[in-house]
């Protein structure tokens, strides 16, 4: 009787151990597949594109600001002043 109980528990423990080993192997395989995947590259590429666009936009805005302040706006101010100081003569 003792031998039957002993073999029953031994078989039950073996089955549980095998099922845990199968789950561990499956989870390990899935983890390797996720870590080896290149799905995150799209996020990095998009982030770099956004960063480049922001830098180029800031440079263009700085260039336009400098152009308007030094070249365009003084001439516009001069023309407007000339229009308002017209003597009619």
Which descriptor suits the 3D outline? rod-shaped
Decide which structural class fits the backbone: mainly alpha
Strand content: under 5%
Low-confidence stretches: none
The CA-CA distance between the termini, in Å, is 130 Å
Q: Can you give the helix content as a percent range?
A: over 70%
Short synopsis of the structure:
This protein has 89 residues and is mostly helical.
Would you write up a description of this structure?
This protein is mostly helical. The protein is 89% helix and 0% strand. The chain is built from two helices and no strands. The protein has helices spanning 2-36, 41-84. The longest helix is centred in the C-terminal third of the chain and has 44 residues, at 41-84. The model has no long low-confidence stretch (mean pLDDT 82).
């Amino acid at each position: 009787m003792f031998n039957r109980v002993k073999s029953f528990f031994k078989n039950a423990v073996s089955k549980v151990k095998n099922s845990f080993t199968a789950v561990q192997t499956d989870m390990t395989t899935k983890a390797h597949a996720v870590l080896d995947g290149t799905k995150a590259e799209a996020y990095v590429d998009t982030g770099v594109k956004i960063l480049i666009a922001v830098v180029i936009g800031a440079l263009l805005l700085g260039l336009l600001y400098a152009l308007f302040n030094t070249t365009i706006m003084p001439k516009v101010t001069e023309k407007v002043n000339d229009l308002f100081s017209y003597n009619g003569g």
